[in-house]
Write a structure and sequence with these properties.
21 strands; elongated; M1 Pyruvate Kinase, Domain 3; alpha/beta; TIM Barrel
Length: about 475
């Protein structure tokens, strides 16, 4: 099942996409990685979806990536005596720790750690930014504020505090329990929410202990201030534009998206663009033209993958949304300007043999009009270097580790195949040619470029490049 595009598609599973038959439809429509959103659903639901994906993987003989997305801390107001209140511009409103239902003058904010850092002038955003308040005074366990943008506020609506690093641990007890469950299942990626600084990743890295790769969700403006360090400490990045757009002005989000993608390209880390990409397809069989342009922009920016959330999880047209995403991505990559943009954005290679070989492989593939670049990899580092170059030809990743093949499903241009280890150069070339032909990447008479590390099986030791002909008898 070779994809006719380089940019990958993540599809979130949910009530509209939970049966084995529907998951198989999504995969055939173009989904490369499936997201299990632990903000919703029970463990039994996620287990059922996980098992359906793994059965599909066996049926199709294709590695499929599975991402578990941890909920992270959710800051919310308490409940109101009448379920909701209407706040008007200019009125005073109090947040406190009192254990009683709120009214039009006050509400419980059951997060003392948040109240402790509120100071006069701090802005509070409620219900995804629909309401805005400015702190006028604060003390132990309370904050007095003025409503600057009013509206209706109901029970348990979310609270955002832009411009402030909150003393909140990014992993809740729920997250820790979900993480144990997901790792025991065998997920390939863990997405971490509420990251504000590089140190926030360390605890998750310790708990995961190499059993999965870590994808950091950039949701907080504070994280952008430490972007380079956070990208370095992650295995991949998700541009979570919905949450990022609540605390950042809307006009800043497009440039932030480009900046994050550029940094990930420079560091050779996969980057996923997420949230509201085909939002109207939750209820409509067609996206808006603006949404199609939004997806195309992420592709032109050089993202490794684009993601569907509610469109595939709970929308009325989950398969159609994936199919539409596939069509938009493929059409965008056919645009002549796409290739020019990719060629103009090559990051500088590091002064290592591995980077030198990988850059040379892309150049050689261009010069000889190769059908594919074939990388042998154990950890995936060789394949990631190849993807960093955004070559003109597909990347065929051969690995003896199924875990690595599954993780590569999110990477730009990557077609991963699990295959036994090789022992010598002749076997390396033979296998590369055979799989390239079997998986429809090369025809007899085509040439392929092969990179590997010698001695074989040494992670990160890319030091060899070969040109091979695909013969008739393979």
């Amino acid at each position: 099942m070779r994809r006719q595009r380089n940019t990958k598609i993540l599809a979130t599973l949910g009530p509209a996409s939970s049966t084995p038959e529907r998951i198989a439809e999504l995969f055939r429509a173009g989904a490369d990685v499936f997201r299990l959103n632990f903000s919703h659903g029970e463990h039994a639901d996620h287990r059922q979806r996980y098992e359906a994906i793994r059965q599909l993987e066996r049926d199709t003989s294709r590695p499929i990536g599975i991402l578990m997305d941890l909920q992270g801390p959710k800051l919310r107001v308490g409940r109101f005596a009448d379920g909701k209140v209407t706040l008007t511009q200019g009125q005073r409103f109090r947040f406190d720790l009192e254990d009683r239902r709120g009214d039009v003058t006050r509400v419980t904010l059951p997060h003392p750690e948040v109240l402790s850092v509120l100071t006069p002038g701090t802005e509070l955003l409620l219900d995804d930014g629909k309401l805005r308040l400015r702190v006028e005074a604060s003390g132990e366990g309370f904050a007095e504020s003025t409503v600057t943008v009013g509206g209706t506020l109901s029970d348990r609506k979310g609270v955002n505090v832009p411009g402030v690093i909150l003393p909140v641990e990014p992993l809740t007890e729920k997250d820790r329990g979900d993480l144990r469950f997901g790792l025991d299942l065998g997920v390939d990626w863990v997405a971490q929410s509420f990251v504000q600084r590089p140190e926030d990743i360390a605890e998750l890295r310790r708990l995961v202990a190499g059993r999965a790769a870590i994808m950091v969700k950039l949701e907080k403006p504070a994280a952008i201030e430490k972007l380079e360090e956070i990208v370095e400490q992650s295995d991949a990045i998700m541009v979570a534009r919905g949450d990022l757009g609540v605390e950042s002005p809307p006009e800043d989000v497009p440039s932030l998206q480009k900046r994050i993608i550029a940094m990930c390209r420079q560091k050779g880390k996969p980057v996923v663009v997420a949230t509201q990409m085909l939002e109207s397809m939750i209820v409509s069989p067609q996206p808006t033209r603006a949404e199609a342009s939004d997806v195309a922009t992420a592709v032109f920016d050089g993202a490794d993958a684009v993601m569907l959330s509610a469109e595939s999880a709970s929308g009325a047209y989950p398969v159609e949304a994936v199919r539409m995403m596939d069509r938009i991505v493929a059409r965008t990559e056919q645009e002549p300007s796409y290739r020019r943009i990719m060629d103009a954005q090559h990051p500088e290679p590091e002064e290592t043999a591995a980077d030198a070989i990988t850059k040379a492989a892309a150049q050689v593939a261009h010069t000889i009009r190769a059908a594919a670049i074939v990388t042998y990899t154990t950890s995936g580092s060789t394949a990631l270097r190849a993807a960093r170059e955004r070559p003109e030809v597909p990347i065929l990743c051969l690995t003896s580790k199924l875990d690595t093949a599954r993780r590569m499903a999110v990477v730009w241009g990557m077609h991963a195949v699990e295959t036994p280890d090789i022992d010598n150069l002749a076997e390396m070339v033979e296998k590369a040619c055979t799989i390239a032909r079997q998986d429809d990447f090369a025809k007899p008479g085509s040439r392929i470029v092969v990179t590997a590390g010698v001695p074989f099986g040494t992670p990160g030791a890319t030091n060899l490049i070969r040109i091979a002909w695909v013969s008739e008898d393979r």
